Amino acid sequence: MLKALNPVVAEVTERIRRRSAESRSVYLERVAAARAVGRGRDHLSCGNLAHAFAAAPVGDKLSIRSNAANIAIVTAYNDMLSAHQPFEGFPAIIKDAARKAGATAQVAGGVPAMCDGVTQGRPGMELSLFSRDVIAMAAGIALSHDAFDAALMLGVCDKIVPGLVIGALAFGHLPVIFVPAGPMPSGIPNKEKAKVRERFALGLASREELLEAESASYHAAGTCTFYGTANSNQMLMELMGLHLPGTAFVNPGTPLREALTRASTQRAVALAEAGAGHIGAVLDEHAFVNGIVGLMATGGSTNHALHLPAMARAAGLVIDWDDFDALGKVTPLLARVYPNGGADVNMFHAAGGMAFLTRELLDAGLLHGDVETIAGAGLAGYAREPYLDGETLAWRDPPPASLAPDILRPASDPFDAEGGLKILHGPLGRSIIKTSSVPADRHVVEAPAAVFDDQEAFIAAFTAGALDRDVIAVLRFQGPRANGMPELHKLTPALTALQNKGFRVALVTDGRMSGASGAVPAAIHVTPEAACGGALARVIEGDILRLDTVAGALTINVNDATFAARPAAPAPPERHGWGRELFAPFRAGASAAETGGSIFWSEGKP
Q: Is residue 408 part of a domain?
């Protein structure tokens, strides 16, 4: 029997339902209309259908012409991204599994997949956030042929999974299952890598030493093993019911990974044949609340304060940062995975992983257990872990107690009574802060501001020693409208070095940090952004700022009238090259961070 739901979780879910009543109704009416039309292939002309299977093997042609299910594969494969390289072999596995289930599968299309780890601090990072919306459109194009009865989405990393979700929700009448590749085996400890980065920032390590450390960390096929946005994506897909249970953190190239990929295909065929599990029904307000609770319980990526609102709007749902804040206050922090601790996701998985976490959150009344999932058994089925019994895929209960209490804990003995993300309010706007990796004595920082309009100016000041003091760095004009909201992870080593010197240090920005944000307190995603009249444009050098995660406040010690009368700093000149011109319409039409930084939805109704 499911435990009584926490009243705050229930209240937040209900207010999302009320807030979204009109837009969700419109969305569900569209889904119902698409379902009423029936199977797409039944409406294709002979010429349409012949084009759809012209290149297929003879056996597949006969199946596609019949009533057998045809499964779309939408893949983010490329062989530069370690997390996506394993997808090269997935279509062959999926097609074989589909045939054995009496169905067919076709690669319907590919979507771009860029790596923030490659573009950090480079011009390409200004394209990163908007790549999510490009991926959504590319997924829509792949499914637009209307020749499919279900879809398998092959994606793992930062913008790819949210983009695939948004694209799939435009075809909300289809059953959709997400099929990840899994994390790479563990390399050198993440803390060891971070120390080398800090030493390099201080000029104490050579580039060769830094490259050696990075190469020993990012060393094989699979997701990077720290708990950043990519691995937070996988946690979300489990708790939101779009994976088969326990799929998230199984290493690539293993028999269990292949068995889960085959089982995902078989499940997609079964859902297609039953006319069940369509993604428009799976992703309701309960699923999104479950995802936010999971994010809080694991200290997940701050990027999902952007992605979850954007995904929700694709389903006709409106969620905001107040929902995150309320759920964070009642959700205990149960995991310590780098950058929130020393462990990586492989260690988390070995300690009990997602099955243990799900069971604990369900038993604490923090998750909606009675929800529709692609596995079909409610969320209780996700409190079990997959294994191979000989060659047969099976599921079993996780260990009764965590196998590593320094990594994963029960809800009765959490690392912290509250979750890993908080919302800050004040005259500078609304912002997100990740507190799970910040030492307790740094939860409140008050210091003079040092104001920068780009990362290069900050790095130059740090290198010159101008920031060797108590300081709150203000980096503005980094929002979606200004330059596409690049991640600012390049600043982390320098900020960490300053903090380790004993200075009181923090960052305030309308940009992003990332899922890999570290131990320096950072108020990010400040909204409204400076380029849209936000207050950060009126902060000047030496203003005393206070970042207070205890009170949930971000304030400035300047008289209100004086501050309001200040002229806003002009935005820096627009930068060119490296594809920036292609994304000018995206920057011009992007919504605010709290609504997802998306070109699809404004601050109004979806």
A: no
Distance, in Å, from the CA atom of 270 to the CA atom of 107, rounded to the nearest integer, reads 19
In whole angstroms, what is the distance from residue 304 CA to residue 512 CA?
11
Does 426 lie in the same domain as 349? no
Cβ atoms of 283 and 311 within 8 Å: the answer is yes
What's the structural domain count of the chain? 2
Max Cα distance, the chain (Å): 77
Q: Which domain holds residue 482?
A: 421-572
Choose the final residue of a domain: 396, 411, 440. 396
Q: Which of 290-318 are b and which e, b meaning 16 or more Cβ less than 10 Å from the residue's Cβ?
A: bbbbbbbbbbbbbbbbbbbbbbbbbbbbb
SS (H, E, C) 44-95: CCHHHHHHHHCCCCHHHHHHHHCCCCEEEEEECCCCCCCCCHHHHHHHHHHH
The CA distance from 457 to 305, in Å, is: 27
Between CA 541 and CA 518 the distance in angstroms is 25
* Tokens 């029904």 sit on residue: 281
Domain contains 332: yes
| Residues contacting 155, CB < 8 A, separation 6+ | 75, 76, 84, 111, 113, 135, 161, 163, 164, 178, 180
Evaluate whether 290 touches 319 at the Cβ level (below 8 Å): no
Q: Which pTM does this prediction carry?
A: 0.95
Shortest CA distance to 223 belongs to which of 304, 115, 355? Answer: 115
pLDDT tens for 478-520 read 999 999 999 998 888 899 999 999 999 999 999 998 755 678 9
